[in-house]
Design goal:
- The protein is α+β, with helices and mostly antiparallel strands.
- It has 3 helices and 5 strands.
- A 3-stranded antiparallel beta sheet has the order 1-2-5. A two-stranded parallel sheet has the order 3-4.
- Helix 1 packs across helix 2.
- The radius of gyration is 17 Å and the shape is globular.
């Protein structure tokens, strides 16, 4: 089955190496964050509504804008941010400086900072580099 996804948050960027000796500590730190976030009053319960709209080209990708009709994504992101902060971590919001973030207590301090996007979208196509001609990219899409 083909499907689109929406990133609520990137808790740990998988491009960063994770030493085998740190796997369990990292796992436990994030389980604590996720358990706390799910218990928060802003965490979505049951079904919620998302509406897909315009196609946009952003740098090296094509995205569909998504309306978070019930504020479910907003609520989940708020819950995650508070749960991370409660464990002495700091999520980077949107395009903020990655150097200002830090993983939650219990995760290796060398881990990348968690990231919470400030837009709701679904990436439908990503190129290795930004296309030279947006018109041609749009036509190919």
């Amino acid at each position: 089955t083909e499907c689109l996804h929406i990133t609520v948050a990137t808790l740990r960027n998988c491009a960063a190496p994770l030493a085998p000796a740190n796997r369990e500590a990292t796992r436990e730190a994030w389980i604590g964050v996720l358990d706390a976030a799910r218990a928060a009053p802003t965490w979505p319960r049951g079904s919620f509504r998302l509406t897909f709209s315009n196609l946009a080209f952003r740098g090296n990708c094509a995205t569909l804008a998504v309306s978070d009709d019930d504020d479910a994504i907003l609520g989940a992101r708020a819950a995650l941010g508070k749960a991370i902060a409660a464990r002495d971590g700091r999520a980077v919001i949107g395009g903020g400086p990655r150097s200002e973030g830090r993983p939650p207590r219990g995760a290796p301090s060398s881990d990348p900072a968690p990231h919470v996007p400030d837009i709701v979208h679904s990436t439908v196509l990503r190129w290795a580099a930004e296309p030279a001609s947006r018109a041609e990219a749009h036509e190919a899409f």
